[in-house]
Structures are given as structure tokens and as C-alpha cells.
Amino acid sequence: MRESILVTGGTGVLGRPLVDRLRADGHEVGVLSRHSEPPVDLRDGAGLDEALAGRDVVVHCATTMGGGDVRAAGRLLEAAHRAGVRHLVYISIVGVDRVPLPYYRTKFEVEGLVEGSGLEWTTLRATQFHQLVRRLLRGLARLPVLPVPDMPIQPVDAVEVAHRLAELAVAGPAGRVPDFGGPKVHPLRELAATYLRAERRRRPVLPLRLPGKTFRAYQRGEHTVPGLRGGRVTFEEFLDRGE
Predict the structure, then answer these.
(1) Which of 184, 191, 211, 230 keeps 20 to 30 A from 219, CA to CA?
(2) What Cα–Cα distance (Å) separates residue 152 from each residue in 55, 165, 188, 220?
(3) pLDDT per residue over 149-168, tens digit each?
(4) What is the 8-class DSSP label of residue 123?
(5) What is the per-residue pLDDT for 41?
(6) In degrees rounded to 5, what are phi and psi of residue 230?
(7) What sign for the dihedral angle of Cα 222, 224, 225, 226?
(8) Bridge partners, 208 (sequence order)
């Protein structure tokens, strides 16, 4: 069945392949962002009612590390109610309820807003994207020694997560669905070595133990799901694609 779907954050790392997949599957897809035409801003709700008019499903991918996600989600949920949206899909992160990082706490709070909104909903948690890991390592590799936190990580391909979201968007409300993880849990130092080989660079890799509850949660692997390896694309394969 052809659906009318609105994707927030549809120009981002996850949103772009999600929009492409939904359109390839024959759905009518709108993109909500500050750069869309007309522009829509979740921070103040400008243009939100118009963007949601006639939509069957909303997939909420928009986020910011700078804060404001809870307020933005509240505006989106209220507008979705007014528009009669019948299904809202939210993408979250594995470990938001176990890792005491402020950004994770915000994502967990938004999960609660979605669950208590009165809308029919689906929430998917995913592990860290390959793009995030590469960006972290690229920044650290500017130093003569590449220091990395001594912790495991389970990176996943954003395109594979986008395809899973596309399936969930048209499958109907399902509540909290099983988490989506990458194909393998690696020590971060191992991924650092993979990155250096791909870039043909030489740096000593220095594992670091950091203080605090957040690092201890990461070190325990609270942000990983070893038994739920939905993704197939490895970090090395991602780097080989040269994206």
C-alpha cells in the first residue's frame, strides 16, 4: 500500500538513505528540515502543521547534539496529533537507558514522550554508525599518537538502519522493537588500526582508561547488543566504499 510519509532530518546521514529507500518502494515522501522548501523548524514549530497535513506516517530522525531534542519532539508529537498521523517511528540509540551520557539521557526522554504521546508508535534503537566512528578516529589521528578509549564498540551501517526503518514505517505500530546492531563487537583500538590501514597512515594506537560512570558503562558494553547483529556491513567494508 502506498503511504504518505514525512521524514524529519531527511537530509542527514540516516535520513537520506531512508528517503531514497521509501521513494524506491513507491511511497510519497516528504522531507522535513530547516533546508527544505518551505523550511520547517522543529525548534519553534514554524511550518510544522503544513508539513504534516495528509501524512499517514512520520519517521523522526532529526536530532542535535546541541540540545533542544525534547522540546522539538514535543512540538512534533502535538502537531502529529492535530494532523491525525496514525503511526510515528522514532530512531534511538542502544544504551540510552544505561549509559549516563547527557545526549543519551535526552534520547531516552524523547522515547518516553513518544510512548506516552497517545499516538501509535514504533521505536528502534541502533548502535553507533560507522560514520561516527570514522569521524572520531579521523579527529584523533591528527595527533602523533592515536589515543582511543579502551572499550568495545559495535558499529553499524547507516544505510542498513535506514532500510530497517523503512520496513518498520510501513509495517504498522509495533512499540519497542528489537535493537539493531552491527555485525561484530570490536575493541575500539582494533577499529583504529583498521582505519589507519585504510588511510595508509602509521600511528601508535594508545588505549586509554578514562574516569567516570559514563566510561565504565561504555567499557561494560552497555551500548552494544552482541546477540542482535542485524547489520552485515563491516567497518572495513564501509571504509572501502570510500563514502
Answers:
(1) 230
(2) 40, 25, 6, 8
(3) 999 999 999 999 999 999 99
(4) E
(5) 81
(6) -70, -30
(7) negative
(8) 149
pLDDT tens digits, 57-85 = 999 999 987 779 999 999 999 999 999 99
Where on the phi/psi map is residue 95: left (φ > 0), alpha (ψ -120 to 50), or beta? Answer: left
Q: Where are the beta strands (DSSP E) in 154-195?
A: 175-176, 186-187
Q: What CA–CA distance (Å, rounded) separates 13 from 36? A: 16
Q: Phi, psi (5° rounding) for residue 193?
A: -65, -40
- The 10 Å CB-count burial string (b at 16+, else e) for 157-187 is bbbbbbbbbbebbbeeeeeeeebbbbbbbbe
Cα separation, 41 vs 231, in Å, equals 32
Who contacts 241 (Cβ-Cβ below 8 Å, separation ≥6)? none
Pairing outcome for strands 152-153 and 186-187: antiparallel
The mean per-residue pLDDT over the stretch 187-191 comes to 97
| Residue among 11, 12, 16 at smallest CA distance from 166 | 16
Q: Is the dihedral of CA 220, 234, 138, 190 positive or negative?
A: positive
